[in-house]
Please model this.
Amino acid sequence: VLTQLRMEAFYSFN
Amino acid sequence: MLELPLVKGDPFHHVMEAILDLSDVAHVVCTTRGLNLLAVDTKHLAIVSLLFPAEDFKGYTCDEYISIGIPIRDLVNAIRCGDDKDTITLKVGEENFGTITLSFVSPEKNTVDYEFRLVDAKLERFRLPDRHFLRSKYQGSVKMPSVEFRRICKCLSNFGDEYGVISVTDEDLTYFAKGTDGDVYVEYKQQEEDTTIFKIDVREPVRLAFNPKYLNTFAKVFTLSGQVKLFLSKTHPLMVECKIGQKGRIRCFVAPKVEP
Model:
């Protein structure tokens, strides 16, 4: 089973 | 003051239609140099970015830095109500700050104006790294016809809406999707004699798992351009890019699935 990453793992969200 | 001339079916409209079901708000930054649109889906699994330089946008007028959150559904609903022959202008003025006006003018000079509230974009503001940083993160890229790319995305998404894989080596590009009743596997071989239509460029083989649904959502936007370029990384989201006009471009990012 794979884990779905979210964009927060790569780019900064304010 | 900002004035954006729009046409039904232009890239701006296309991007808005594509992200309608993914996101509520498009973050638009306008300067004298042009327009930059960013939207992230509500689950934060995908990002779409549209860059439109002023010189590619006939009639574009912006005399200051303007950062606004546009309610996507309101805008799309309004554009859908318009006629194909209407001249559409999106306006943000100083006197009505906090609202956008979308004006439709028919060839007979009849007018319809929609006015809706801007959304507070600060809550969802995010930053994408610059081009040089992005380039350093990708181990491989593939250029291919956008129509072909759309066909594959549709096929993958129809088969399995949860699990898809893109793999690239210096010899071939493969797409895979796992469905409940079967799997689909698509393979493209690099043809040595013709690299203008299909071209693989890899530093090392890359295999990337993702949700095909998001790619399929964006794929129709890419048919605005003849070709797409995929950027694959072992550690970063899949990036797909196409050029619009002379210097404009659309980029989409899809977050990967990884081993726990």
User: Anything to note?
Assistant: The beta strands of chain A are 3-4, 12-13. DSSP finds no helices and two strands in chain A. The interface with chain B takes residues 1-14 of chain A (CB under 8 Å). The CA atoms of residues 3 and 14 of chain A lie 24 Å apart.
